[in-house]
Design a protein that fits this description.
Shape: elongated
Distance between the termini: 72 Å
Oligomer: single chain
Number of strands: 9
Number of domains: 2
CATH topology of the largest domain: Rossmann fold
Length: 468
């Protein structure tokens, strides 16, 4: 590249469309209600010209006060802000008003302004990412995470609402509460798990929540997590990202097939499948494959990623398919960024990273965790929050903590394969516990039907909450 080319590139103006900005502002003065068509994705900083930023900000002030947006009210508001003369006075507002004959194309003008802003942000991001390349003292993974976050934030700004009128938010909240009040036992504010008693306590899995599912090894936490993931994908039709740090993709797929088809996992893995008779395994598996092939489940079995690598993979999956739920099995296998840190510092960094991921992508993150051996030293070994390994950060960062307690593992007189599911922490609601049966053959937890009569859901729900 010669010096002339470099000089011409330096002199290039950033992407902009001043005429589109003028047409947009003029349209908003013609039609006061037009601002509600653009306010959710367009902000003052999306304009290139400083004067236009000030004018649009004043329009937002008026809209939030339910005041009409016209040349008189706008000039008055700008005068209050001591910016009227800076933008060119009332004569410039008149010029904007005369730019367009009507407000019919306001949305198109706004999308042009937004596009130019995104292009400018990309140019700024390229400089920021370039500077990251000189930070030689930082770990490469941390630098890559910062670079990916910069790009991800730009892409998200293009699709997420940036402004929301409070009156619209309140109306939506009222409508949601009305629907829930009609039948609180069958409508959830979050994603259903497939287990009614768990949904009764949590009201489903909620966006931006970090849910910790913990137990001792071989108690079934991976199975319960996959049961929930399968339900969310098959019944809720929401994409699920599964980060399997312990099992391979093939093992996860086999478990999902066993659970969906209700064919023994051992028979699936050994090939000892029946072809004829009342229980035709091939027919059941074929039906399960049909259901699972339509389920938006995405599996990654990268061994021991760092939390930054996991976040990067989740961001890419979110950008490609959109996510309803993320499952991490399990968090003690996430590689720490700094192996010289203490174990407590490492787990703190990981738990904070997972909570940040839940908030950034606005999806629930279900992370599996191991207990410390301290639980085995008690009689009976009923788990507590303190039993979470390095529990301080996990307990603090999590919104929900669920334990799997298996009395049959230490008490021979206990009913076999009956687990007690304990909601030990629930930041936004009650805690409680309930039993589930673990079907070892198909690695699936199942609701226990106590009798053949039609259950009284309301009575059961109230009894359960009253014991919390």
């Amino acid at each position: 590249m010669n010096n002339f080319t470099q000089l011409s590139e330096i002199k290039r103006l950033p992407p902009q469309d001043i005429e589109a900005e003028k047409a947009l502002l003029g349209s908003l003065m013609i039609d006061s209600n037009a601002i509600w068509k653009v306010i959710d994705f367009l902000g003052p900083d999306d304009f290139y010209k400083k004067e236009h930023q000030d004018i649009y900000a004043a329009m937002i002030d008026l809209a939030n006060k339910n005041s009409p947006i016209d040349i008189k009210t706008l000039a008055s508001r700008l005068q209050e802000l001591t910016k009227l003369e800076k933008i060119g006075g009332i004569s410039y507002l008149s010029e904007l008003l005369n730019t367009v004959p009507n407000a019919s194309n306001v949305f198109s003008y706004a999308k042009i302004v937004q596009k130019k802003r995104i292009l400018r942000n990309l140019i700024e991001a390229s400089y920021e990412i370039g500077e990251l390349g000189y930070q030689e003292k930082e770990e490469v993974e941390q630098i890559l995470d910062k670079a990916e976050k910069i790009i991800f934030q730009i892409s998200q700004k293009g699709v997420l609402q940036k402004f929301l009128a409070i009156k619209d938010a309140l109306a939506e909240a009222w409508e949601r509460m009305e629907k829930l009040a009609e039948n609180p036992l069958q409508k959830l504010s979050g994603l259903g798990t497939g287990f009614p008693k768990l949904d009764n306590i949590l009201a489903g899995l909620h966006k931006s929540d970090l849910i910790i599912l913990a137990s001792r090894p071989s108690y079934g936490k991976s199975s319960l997590a996959l049961n929930i993931a399968r339900y969310v994908a098959v019944h809720e039709k929401q994409p699920v990202g599964i980060f399997s740090l312990e099992m391979s993709k093939e093992q996860v797929v086999d478990r999902l097939i066993a659970s969906q088809s209700r064919v023994s996992l051992w028979k699936i893995r050994t090939g000892r499948l029946s072809k004829n008779g009342e229980f035709n395994d091939f027919s059941a598996i074929n039906n399960a494959l049909g259901v699972l092939s339509e389920a938006p489940i995405y599996i990654d079995d990268t061994s021991s990623p760092t939390v930054l690598q996991l976040k990067a993979m989740a961001r890419r999956l979110q950008a490609e398919v959109g996510l309803g739920l993320i499952v991490v099995d399990y968090l003690q296998l996430i590689q720490p960024l700094n192996t010289r840190d203490s174990v407590v510092q490492q787990v703190t960094q990981i738990s904070r990273g997972l909570k940040d991921l839940a908030r950034e992508l606005n999806v629930p993150v279900l992370a599996l965790s191991q207990f410390s051996r301290a639980v085995e030293q008690r009689t009976p070994p009923i788990p507590r929050l303190a039993d979470l390994r390095e529990s301080g950060s996990l307990e603090q960062d999590s919104d929900v903590v669920i334990f799997i307690h298996r009395p049959d593992k230490y008490d021979q007189s206990a009913p076999p394969n009956v687990a007690e599911i304990i909601v030990a922490k629930h930041r936004n609601g009650p805690t409680g516990s309930f039993p589930l049966r673990f079907n070892e053959e198909i690695v699936t937890f199942e609701t226990i039907v106590e009798n053949l009569e039609e259950p009284n859901l309301e009575e059961d729900f109230n009894k359960e909450i009253s014991t919390i």
